[in-house]
């Protein structure tokens, strides 16, 4: 995108004036770089529609890979790959019952994140 197009899309101040008192407040509230990086990585996990679909299934029930594969019309291998990412990100947890492994949401924060995202995209 050329600078001319950016200028048309983004309004800018007519003069350069740094507001030190505001910058100080921002500086005090800004999380550490490592936390910002971790947060960005977490949101990347939500950037895949298959993982979102898995989470929606898990909102309703604790299920095994076989159930997820059937519900989402995907292979167990594809589901397992996505579950690995979700588990590494601490969004889902698993428990073994005999020969089966059941997956569920790691905690209620996961549902809140998705609910907030849905609320945002549904705004007028």
Structural overview:
The protein has 124 residues and is mostly helical. It has a single domain, classed as Orthogonal Bundle (Arc Repressor Mutant, subunit A). The protein contains 7 helices and 3 strands; from the N terminus they run ααααβααββα. It has a 3-stranded antiparallel sheet with strand order 1-3-2. Helix 5 crosses helix 6. It is elongated. The protein starts with a helix and ends with a helix. The mean pLDDT is 92.
CATH topology: Arc Repressor Mutant, subunit A
* General form: elongated
Gyration radius (Cα, Å) is 21 Å
CATH architecture: Orthogonal Bundle
The number of strands is: 3
Uncertain runs: none
Helix content: 55-70%
The CATH class assignment is: Mainly Alpha
Indicate how many domains the architecture comprises.
1
- In sequence order, what are the helices and strands, one letter per element? HHHHEHHEEH
- How does the helix and strand content classify structurally? mainly alpha
Record the SSE blueprint.
Layout: H1 3-9, H2 20-29, H3 33-45, H4 49-60, E1 63-64, H5 65-72, H6 76-88, E2 92-97, E3 100-105, H7 108-122
Antiparallel strand pairs: 1-3, 2-3
